[in-house]
Amino acid sequence: MHDQLIQQLADGILIGLVYSLVAIGLTLIWGVMNIVNFAHGDFLMLGMFASFWLFTLFGIDPIFSIPICFFGMFLLGMLIYRFIVRKVMKGPILAQMVVTFGVSIFVANLAVYFWTPDFRLLPPTILQGTWHFAGIDLSVPKVAASIGSVVASACVLLFLKKTNTGKAILATEMDREAALLMGINTDRINALSFGLGSALVGVAGAFLSTYYYIYPQVGGLFGLIAFCVVALGGFGSIEGAFIAGTLVGLAQTLGGFFFDPSYKYAIVFSIYLITIWIRPKGLLGW
Amino acid sequence: MNKATCLKVDGLSKHFGGLAANSDVSFSVEEGEIVSIIGPNGAGKSTLFNCVTGVYKPDRGSVAFFGRDITRMRPDKVCKIGIARTFQIVEVVSEMTVLENVTTGALLHHSRIKTAIEKADEILHFAGLYEKRDFLGTEITIADKKRLEVSMALATQPRLLMLDEAMAGLTKVELREILELLRKIRSEGMTLVIVEHVMEAVMQISDRVVVLNSGKKIMEGKPKEVVSDREVIQAYLGEKYSAHIS
Amino acid sequence: MRNLPIGQLIVGVVVLLLLIAFPLFISQPVHVHTMILVFMFGMLATAWNIIGGYAGMYSFGQVAFFGIGAYTSSYLLVSHGVNPWLGLILGGCAAALVAAAIGYPCSNLRGHYFSIATIAFAEIVRIVFNNWKAVGAAEGLTLPMDNPSFSHFLFNSSKLPYYYIMLGFLILALVVCYFVANSKMGYYFRAIKESHRVAEVMGVNVVLYRLIAVMISAFLSAMAGTFYAQYVLYIDPDSVMLLPFSVQIVLISMLGGAGSLMGPVLGAAILIPASEYTRIALGAKGTGVDMLIYGFLIMMISMYYPEGVWKLVSRIGRKKTKTSVHPEKAAAVTAQP
Q1: Do C299 and A263 touch (CB under 8 A)?
Q2: CATH code at A207?
Q3: Between A84, A94, A117, which is nearest C303 by CB?
Q4: Is B93 in Cβ contact with C190 (below 8 Å)?
Q5: Each residue of C84-143: pLDDT tens digit?
Q6: B188 within domain boundaries
Q7: Which element (helix H / strand E) includes B13?
Q8: In terms of residue numbers, what domain contains B24?
Q9: ipTM of this model?
Q10: Is residue A14 part of a domain?
Q11: pTM above threshold 0.95
Q12: How far is A110 from chain C (nearest CA, A)?
C-alpha cells in the first residue's frame, strides 16, 4: 500500500510536469492577448503526430524531432494568429472564444481526414524500458518526457526574463497599454507569443508521443486539463503554471488512488472550480 | 431650521497591504449641503468613497446615513437606502440607449417598465439629455456620458449623491453646465458630496471643503478658509492654485 | 418598451403558419426530423440567449442541463413509472436547482473565467453520469416504447406529434425570453452584462439576478432534454452530455445574433439544416469532412459575422430609430447657440 502510494506520487509528478509544459504555452497566450486558445490541446495532438510521422516515415527518433516540432508549431502558431486570431481580437469576446473552438474542430478533423481516427503507438525508441527504483516502477520515456518538460520550461523562463524580446513579452503581459506607450510593437509580441505558446505545446506533444496513444481526438482532454492548470497557477503566470501542473498531476493520480479512477478527471475539474471560487486569480496570478 | 445629519463618517480606516489608504477619517455632512473632498493624488479620496458606498469594507470606523449604520453594507443595498454615486472613470451601459440607461436606475423604485420610463424621461428633461435619449451609450460625448451617469444616479431617487471627479476633462462651457445641474439638484433637496480636483468648481459650488492628504483628514472648513490654510497649501495647492483664480 | 414593428409581426405570423403547414406537405421523415432539430436547438439557443446574450454570461455548459432534464424524466419513467409530462417539470426543477447550486459560487466570475467554469461543471456532470450505475452509466437508459399516446408523451407511428410539440415548446421559450427581455429583469441583465459595478450602483442585486437567469435558462434547456429523450427513446452520456453540443448551442446563438429575441432561432434555422444535410451527404464515410466544413464555418462566422445575421435581417422593413451618429454630430444637435 505504501509502495503503491509512492508509485502514484511518482506518476503524478511525471504526468504533472508534462501538464506544466502544456499549460505554460496556454498561459503565455492568455496573459499576453487575453485569448483563451481552445485549440491548444489540438496543437498538442499535432506535435504528437509530427513526432510519430517523423519516426515512422524518416526514422527520426523523437528526441531529435523536438526541434523540428518546435519550429513547425511555432510557424503554425504565428500563421494562425496572423490570419485568424488577429481578426477577432477587435471583435466581441464571444467571437474570440468561439473562433478557437472552430480551429480546434477543424484541426482535429483535418487529422481524422488525413490520418484516420485510428489509435497509434510509437514502438520503443532510444529511450525505452523501465527503471525499478526504491520499490516503484519508473518508465523511462515518462521520466525523459518529464525531464524534457522541466528543461523546456526553464528555457522559456530564461528567455522571458533575460532576453529583450522576452522582457517585452512579459511587459505586454503585465500592462498592454503601457507596453504600447513604450514603443513595443504589441502585434508582433502577440504573434511571437502565440507562436511560442504553440511551439511549447507541440514540443510537449513530441515528449508525450514516446509513451502515449496518438489519435486525432487526444487533444480534447489535455486542453481542458491545461485550462485547469492555468487557472490554478494564475492566469499569465509561468511559474504558477509550472507548479500547478505538478499539483494537478498529483491530484489526478492521488484522486484516482483514494477514490475511484474513473472519477479522476472529475476531481481535477472540481479542484479547478474550488480554486476559482476561493482565489479567482489563482495561486500566483495577478 | 434644524437640518438632519445626512452622512457621518467616524474614524474610517482602510489599508491595502502595507498602505494606509484611509487613516482615521471623520467628518459629517448636513442635509442639503454641498461638501467637496479634495486632496493630492493618492490622498485616499476614491477609497473613502468606496468605503462609504460599500465597494470596499473598511477595516475600522463607521459610516452612518441619517442615523442608520451602513458600514460594510453591500453596494446595491446602499443604493436602495438612498445613496447614489458616480465613478471616476465614467460607467454607463454602452449597449443601451440613454433612455434605457436611466430607466434601469428608475426601475429600483418603479417596477413597472412604463412608469420607470416616464420617470426616466422626467430626469432626462431635468438633466438636459432628453433630445439624445435614443443615442446609444457609446455614441455620446464624454460630457454627456457624465451627465448620463448623474441621471442614472438620480433615477434611483437618492437623498445623497456622491460624485467622483465629475469635472475631469470638461471644457469651461461644460463645467458651467454641470455646476448648473448640480445646483439644480441641490435645490430639489439633495445632499451632495463631491470629490474634485478642479479647484474652480470646488470654490464655486461648495458649502464646505474637507481636505485629505496621505489618507488622513488634515482640514475642513469653508472654501476660503481651506484655501488659505498653510498646511493645505503646502500639501497640495502650491503655485498651481494661483494660476486658477485669475 | 418598444412595440414590435408591424412588419416583423406580420412576417412572424406568416412564418408560423408556414411552419404549421410544413409537415402536412413535406412529409419525408428526414426533413421533418431536421425541422424538429431546428426547433429543439432554437429552444436551447434561446435559453442560452437569456444568460449569454442578455446577461453576458457565456455558458459553454448548457448540455449539462439538457442532460439532467433528459435523465431525470427518463429515470423516473423507467424506474418508477412516472409520467413523462410530470417528469418534464421535475427535470426542469432539478436542472434549475443544480444551476442555482453551481451558479451561486460562480457569481463573481465573468468572461473567460465564467465560460471555463461552465465547461468544467458540465464535464463533471458527464463523468458522474458516465459512472453512475443507477442511471445506466455508460450504457445509458432505454425508454419504453409501448402504449404510445399523448398522455404518455410517446408516438410510434409518425413524427408529426413530436414536430408540433417541439414547435410549441419553442414558442414557449420565445415567449419566456420576450417577457424576460422586456421586463425589469431584462434591463437588469443588460446592466449586469456591462459591468457588475454599474448594476450594483443602480441598486441591482447582481447575485440574485444572475441566479434567476441561470435557473430560467436551465429549466428551459432541461425541457428540451426531456423532449429529446421521449423522441429518440434512448439516452446516454455521449448523446446528451458532450461539450461539442454546448459549443453548437453557443455558435447558433452567435450566428443568429446573441441578445436579440429571434436571432438564436434564425441561427438554428441556418446552421442545423446545413450541418444535418452535410453530415448526411458527406459524413457517413467517417472521414470527418462534414466536421471540417463545420469547423471552417465556425471560424468564418466568428471572424466575419460575430454580431450575427439577425442585425442584417431586421433592418429590412423597419424604420431606423437608433442611428449611428458620430458623437460630434450628436453634440451639435443640442449645442448652445
Answers
A1: no
A2: 1.10.3470
A3: A84
A4: yes
A5: 999 999 999 999 999 999 999 999 898 888 998 999 999 999 999 999 988 888 888 988
A6: no
A7: strand B5-16
A8: 1-82+162-169+193-246
A9: 0.89
A10: yes
A11: no
A12: 6
